[in-house]
Design a protein that fits this description.
- About 30% of the residues lie in helices and about 25% in strands.
- The chain has helices at about 5-15, 20-30, 160-165, 170-175, 200-210, 245-260, 290-300, 310-315, 365-375, 395-405, 425-450, and strands spanning about 35, 50-55, 60-65, 75-85, 90-100, 100-110, 125-130, 140-145, 180, 215-225, 230, 235-240, 270-275, 320-325, 325, 350, 380-385, 405-410, 415, 420-425.
- The strands form four sheets. The chain has a nine-stranded mixed β-sheet with strand order 1-2-3-13-4-14-18-16-17, with helices on both faces.
- A hairpin with a 6-residue loop joins strand 19 (about 415) and strand 20.
- The two termini are about 35 Å apart.
């Protein structure tokens, strides 16, 4: 990985779902010499100082870490946390539906998307499928059909009233159901008890090279087929689906891989955790509200010393960077930003602060990341929401309140957050990686020089 925007765009193009994010991350980690762990196994004789490891939960959340050669129990864990999921349309458990001569696919809204941006897009299907293999065992296969298969068409202007033209309104249950095909006479004779159309199942079976009857379950997501791209007079911007928050899965991974090349003098554990289900509140077995974070620290430390007192000391010595995209000022809506806090594209990573604890940043954690940014020569911006606007939140307050770890909230600024295509500045990707790499390399020494 070069850490360049072109690599980011390829990473996202290859990762239409959290399952693909984890699979592609695992491939890059494995190539760099990281060893896969399994949560069901004991790590006692496997995890050692100087080692590099990763494991997943549900194949949609991933934890990767290095242990410095000079690590001692009680030393710091340096964690970058991000999330693998984005607002999308997901195929319903019973998706077969038709109307007025069209074969459609029933979908459910996942998260808080700007759903109007999904109209008139060339959409495909991706996700995972449970199949029975030839030996009788069951496996989970990834699928990414890539081809333009689905579309949610707008209603033409001539069939709208004057009032309807003034404000685009839609019913999420009625108007977001995509077209897959035109109905043919034979399709009307389908099994009425089937959950999914035979055409959809046949398409999946062909892609997976299995008989249709071997497909036992599925979890599919609609995805935009248009690749990410750089644009602007100087190619200074990039646009892509799922920048929120695959960009920080990528920058965190890039930084961890760069750091992993030389951990001989490292005294701590450097860790990347990319959680699923942030967009819907994080309350799942693989979300930030689960024990994933606390168990990662406890299990790694426990291979050296299982003492609970040492665990408490370790947590107090540790630090989480909660990385999620931030709001750049919009040139057409500048009134939406507080006048003294107006982050711009290509001007650096944004530190997010909210005194009502929608973000976890405080004086101590803000100072530490600002000082690391100074050392990295990585520009920093500040964001606080207007008093008359609602404020989003992140995994930061969730993990800091459950684990007790010091946390800062930050992110690369973006436009069109939660649109099917979002926009960022190319320079911000590069400087964010520099900041995270410096965090892994220098946090321990900096923290020891602070008397807080």
């Amino acid at each position: 990985m070069t850490g360049q925007p072109s690599d980011l765009l390829k990473f996202i193009d290859d990762s239409p779902t959290p399952f693909h994010v984890v699979a592609n991350t695992e491939a890059l980690l494995s190539t760099a010499g990281f060893v896969q762990l399994k949560e069901r196994d004991s790590w006692k004789t496997t995890v050692v100082a100087g080692g590099k490891y990763y494991y997943h939960r549900n194949r949609s959340t991933i934890v990767a870490f290095t242990i410095g050669n000079k690590f001692q129990p009680g030393n710091e864990f340096k964690v970058v946390g991000a999330h693998t999921d984005s607002p999308v349309l997901k195929v319903k458990p019973v998706s077969k539906r038709s109307a007025n001569g069209y074969l459609q696919v029933g979908v459910e809204c996942y998260g808080g998307g700007l759903w109007h941006t999904w109209f008139d897009r060339d959409l495909t299907l991706a996700g995972c499928v449970i199949v029975q293999e030839e030996d009788g065992r069951y496996s989970r296969r990834l699928v990414n059909l890539k081809k333009a298969l689905l579309r949610i068409p707008n209603l033409c202007i001539h069939l709208q009233t004057q009032d309807e033209r003034l404000a685009f309104k839609y019913n999420k249950e009625v108007h977001l159901q995509p077209i897959l095909s035109q109905l043919e006479a034979g399709l009307n004779k389908e099994n009425e008890n089937a959950k999914h159309s035979s055409a959809l199942l046949s398409l999946l079976a062909e892609n997976l090279s299995v008989p249709v009857e071997k497909i036992l379950d599925l979890e599919l997501t609609l995805a935009d087929t248009q690749p990410g791209t750089t644009w602007g007079l100087k190619d200074e911007f990039l646009s892509s689906p799922r920048l929120d928050n695959q960009v920080h899965c990528y920058t965190g991974l890039s930084a961890l891989l760069a750091h992993s090349a030389n951990i001989e003098e490292d005294t701590g554990v450097s860790m990347l955790v990319c959680f699923d289900h942030e967009e819907i509140g994080s309350n799942s077995a693989q979300g930030a509200g689960s024990p994933v974070m606390s168990e990662a620290i406890e299990r790694v430390l426990g291979t050296f010393d299982p003492c609970q007192e040492l665990l408490r000391r370790t947590i107090r010595n540790s630090f989480l960077v909660s990385a999620d995209v931030a709001h750049a000022i919009h040139p057409n809506y500048p009134e939406k930003h507080e006048k003294q806090h107006q982050p711009g594209l290509n001007k650096g990573t944004v530190i997010k602060t909210n005194q009502n604890q929608r973000y976890a940043t405080n004086a101590e954690t803000g100072f530490l990341i600002r000082e690391l940014a100074r050392r990295a020569d990585a520009p920093i911006q500040e964001f606080v929401v207007r008093n008359d606007c609602p404020c989003g939140s992140t995994i930061g307050p969730i993990i800091s309140s459950k684990v007790g770890i010091r946390t800062v909230d930050l992110g690369i600024p973006s436009l069109s957050m939660h649109s099917i295509r979002e926009t960022m500045g190319c320079d911000d990707v590069v400087t964010n990686i520099k900041l995270f790499t410096t965090f892994f390399q220098q946090f321990g020494a900096l923290d020891k020089n602070c008397d807080f």
